[in-house]
Amino acid sequence: MGYDLDKLYEGPRSERRAKRKKVNRILNILIVLVVVLIVFFGGKLIFGDKNVDESVSSNQTNQPADNQGKATTDDDSQDKEQEKEETTDKPDDQTSKEKQTEDTNDEQKELESDDSAVVTEGDPESNILKTIENPAWKPIGTSQAEPHSIVYTEGSVDRNEMEMAASYATGFDRSDMIVWWLARNGENSVIATVSSKTTKQVQKVYLDWIPNEGWKPTKIEELKENDSQTYKDYKNSSEPDENENEQDETEDND
């Protein structure tokens, strides 16, 4: 009986020991898991903060570089604008220089023409103040084809070229010049009577046609008075009739 009682007591003891071992294993496993989780999350927090700090510092270091890049691009754009302004100013300077050279060339031509001109005083009893002949005069050029025929019609090519030649010889600007008379002076020659609106100076210009080169001035006569028929007709039409004035005075007296 005693032997059986011992066996009965040993059975529950072994079961308790087995349960304790299982519980200890489970606790150990849980402890290990907790430790692993603590290490994992702790490391993540630590290294995560370092990465955030590094990203913030990198952003801060990049911002001045970006600003510097923007500043350099702004400077480059300003330099390009200045270069554009300089390039746009260069054509203006070039055109002004070209105008100056043209003006100087015109002045030199005028001086040369004045130096080479031969001036002869007119007869005091005639209507000619002086006669001017200049060997430096040249044909003005033409757009007309040969054979040439003289055309006096206003607005025609030949008439315009005659007026251009007269303006070239007299120095009158075409906008300031009045053409009073154009008359034939031979087969290929004409005489143009012109005056200046500003100076009231009247000149008679002799022109010769040079084939394929145009009208060329050969002589100028400066006149005391405008002797063209057109001017006489204009003057007579603009002056009041003396008979009409006398008649008006008689009617007023009555």
TrEMBL record:
The chain crosses the membrane at residues 26-47. Residues 239-254 have a biased composition (Acidic residues). Keywords: Membrane, Transmembrane, Transmembrane helix. InterPro entries: DUF1510 (IPR009988). It comes from the Bacteria. Residues 55-127, 216-254 are annotated as: Disordered. The keyword Membrane applies. Residues 55-71 have a biased composition (Polar residues). This is DUF1510 family protein. It comes from Bacillus timonensis.
